[in-house]
Design brief:
This protein is α+β, with helices and mostly antiparallel strands. About 10% of the residues lie in helices and about 15% in strands. It has 1 helix and 4 strands, in the order H-E-E-E-E. Strand 1 and strand 2 form a beta hairpin.
Length: about 60
Amino acid sequence: MAVPKRKTTRSRSGKRRSHIKNTSKNIIEDKKSGEYRLSHHLDLKTGFYKGRQVLDPKE
């Protein structure tokens, strides 16, 4: 079983974890309803996607 001989320093572990980070979501304002939604996602309130009616709106 592999066991490290010495303690891993904060800088070394930070370098290893440099790609692990929180990314912000791509939130946009909908042109028709003015609601905020994720880009490339269906607007569930209106049922529109890319300017076309895809789903019946929820009420």
